[in-house]
Amino acid sequence: MEGLKVSDANLVVYVHPSKSNKVPQAVLRELSSLLFRFNESFDGVVLAYDVQIQDKIAKILPGFHPYFGVKLKAKLLLFAPKPNMLLEGKVVKLTERSIHVIVLGFSSAIITGEDIREDFNHKIKHGDELFASRSQKRHVIKVGTMIRFLVKSFDEERLHISGSLLPANTGSIRWLARHSEDFSVSDRSTRKRSESEGELVGGETYSLNNDHQIKKSKKHRIRE
Amino acid sequence: MGAEEFGYNIKEQTFNEMEDDDFNHFSDSELVYHVRDALNSVSSGDCDSYNQLVGVMHHSKGLAPDEVALLVTSLKALSGAVSYIDISLHEALLSSIFDMNMWNYGPDVMDALLGLIISLASSNGKYVESCLEMLVSSFTPPFSFIDMLKQPRGIAKKDQVLSRVHLALKHIADLVPLAPSKLCPIISRKMPIYEKEPMVVVYAENMLKLESGAIGEFVSSTMLMALMDTLIDLDVDIGWDGILHDDSSKGIFQMEIEDMDDFADYDEEDGTEFPRELSRKSLGGNSTAEKLDSLMVLTFEHLKSCEVSGRLTEVFEPLLASFRITVLTAYKSKFAQFVMFYACALDPENCGVRFAVLLADIFACEDYPLSFRMSAVAYLASYLSRGNFLSAPLVASILKRLVDWCFEYCNRKGGEMNPTSHRLFYSGCQAIMYVLCFRMKSMIDVAWFKPHLLLIEQILKHKLSPLKVCLPSVVEEFCRQAEAAQLFTSSEEFNFNDLLESEHSRAFGGMERLDMFFPFDPCLLKKSDRFIRPHFVYWSMVRPPYDDDECISDEDVVEEELDLDVSKMSITPRNPLSYWISNGLEEPRGMPARIRPSTSPESF
What family does the database annotate (chain B) (predicted)? Predict the structure, then answer.
């Protein structure tokens, strides 16, 4: 899955003087306040950190409250989805006109009807709603399925993702993994694409060449 | 589905402009398309059908069946077209949806409305907060419903609404995992603390329902802490100041420092009062006190249910944190602390021990400000004295910590008597004496505690002279008991005769009068009292060592004599636990430092 990165950060945490006898605790508390929020300077949502205090000596800020700056080196795990990245998530709700997905257990994503490719047909089987591919009968998306989808936009303030299932390399991860070979072959043959070389990287992961795919598949879409 | 049945009505009433004559019957998806078109047409300046749609949302009370049908259908169609709603373009529609009040509608509309709210919340992060606010607003009924809440019809309606609202909150949390973190501040903010009692109670019920419900995992601690904050807010609203000056003869809550047997004189002779009398006027019709009382009862019932379901230890941690952060730091909290007391009573082995240890830790920890440490030890003393569920070994082990601390203080600091600069030390000494006033016999029976008991003499005889500084009423009762129990080698120093309070005790208590702070004195709230009473040690139940040989005072009525005789028989002297009368429900005779609810049916 894309959208995750590890960054090395040099940080200075300003610790209130009342916390001077428990600096590590104060530092961790400060770093914890970064979690699950989008941070512009890191350009991502901090998911985890591993921190090392650099020096026993801290600079004291002159002023009414003599905060002192503790220098840190931290490894930050960041979640920074950008448009056209491929993300993976679990389907939690499915209606005729939308698929609701949760990514990494905290960020919600929605794929609306227009962003689900025509190939997927909404059905109700044994009382459960699902999307089944017309061309690949076994390619099914239902509640609980892990799917791979394309990011259309990311609301940084609310950590809400708008996604798309238009590209052919999106859909149920399990099915994609099993049919990665067939899929790429059939995809090429059905869509008569000559330039799709290099689309497969490392068996299961797809490259970033998504712009192209969107354009392609849009042509295939029939919309009212 | 309802939508098909009502399709014809829709055609007639709302969407006729969008429709051609060849449609007699709509399917759900067709309706969605119409709504979608209505929404889309706003951007092109054609607002007619959109305005009609907004108009439908404003239908609220006394709906005819066809209006209900129209509303349900429109709501359902809207849920299918949420992705076409634009936050700025369709502001009117959104605000009319969020203004809808669940309590005004029947089950069909409620279901459709919640369906729409869930779809909105999950379709776009921007709507999540508004949706949650709308659901939280539905926690309380409109004012017109208040009187109905106690009738069967009202209760049924309440269940109908609230079960749906909570289900919707759960659905939203399933779809938007970060929603609970947004829900918590909304709930704390919207707490209708100044509304009438039934409103506050219903709201708190909802908070507790969330706490134990499906998303409790995420919101439990915030809900409990918010509830404790509310209790404290109400508690401090019933100020001490307004209740000090009333004549004690008129007091609804009269505190007696003197038990008839033990301290016969003070009240009558000098008219000295503790600053803790709530007048009939100030509390009798005090809606804040009633509100607080009802919320406390609700909390007690919730704790009880947690105990039954085995969640008490889990719930206790946030309570403890909340106590440390808000209750302990509030100026002489009067009632809210009984939540802790009750939780401890339900599970003395875990919660009861945790609470005592926390208080002792705070007292001993130098990181806390002085007044908090003094408050903590006042809580500790009162708690150890009043909880009939605490085992003697536990009380002894905590007392040992206090004794050791005071002993070390004497050795470390030394110096002469000085009430202000050794405040903490004096509060520690007073705590030890206060607990021993209540538990002298059982402490003597704990064999390993004996050496520490003997240390007390050295502390009290130190040059810091705690006996001269601590509250004279406590000192005198303690000395009397210590003498009877032959605790000390020489007794001349303990012949201490003074008033209820002294100049020195005032000085060490400071402005806050922490010298006179006994947080777990009998609970004054009428309804809460019945939860606390069975776990509570009243002064009348305490049998001080000097009582052994004496007859029971003549003033006691026959019934009370019987009670005591029974208690004598039930107590085996070897058993360290035994000097309580285990059945706390019996009528107390009186107690020192007591306040009592005279309106309570069980009062004396």
Answer: Belongs to the RRN3 family.
CATH architecture of structural domain A86-220: Beta Barrel (2.40)
pLDDT band at residue B267 under the 50/70/90 scheme: very low
Bridge partners of residue A161, in order along the sequence: A109, A154
Partner A contacted by B130 (CB < 8 A): no
CA distance A51 to chain B (A): 25
Q: Can you read off the two tokens belonging to residue B428?
A: 């520690």
Which CATH number is A4-79's, of 3.40.50.150, 1.10.1040.10, 3.30.1490.120, 3.40.50.1000?
3.30.1490.120
For residue range B113-159, what is the model confidence (pLDDT) as tens digits? 999 999 999 988 899 999 999 999 999 999 888 888 889 999 999 99
B128 and A158: CB-CB below 8 Å? yes
Q: Touching check for B217 and chain A: CB below 8 Å?
A: no
Q: Extract the tokens encoding B331.
A: 């100026």
B439: exposed, middle or buried (Cβ count in 10 Å: 0-12, 13-18, 19+):
buried
Question: CB–CB of B176 and A108 under 8 A?
Answer: yes
Burial of A110 (0-12, 13-18, 19+ CB in 10 A): buried
Tell me the chain B residues in contact with residue A157 when contact means C-beta distances shorter than 8 Å.
125
Q: In this prediction, what percent of chain B has a pLDDT beyond 70?
A: 76
ipTM for this model = 0.76
| pLDDT in the model for residue A213 | 40
Q: How many residues does chain B have?
A: 604
pLDDT, tens digit, 9 for 90 and up, residues B237-251: 886 654 443 333 322
Is A113–B83 a contact, with Cβ atoms under 8 angstroms apart? yes
Q: Report CB contact under 8 Å: B123, A98.
A: yes
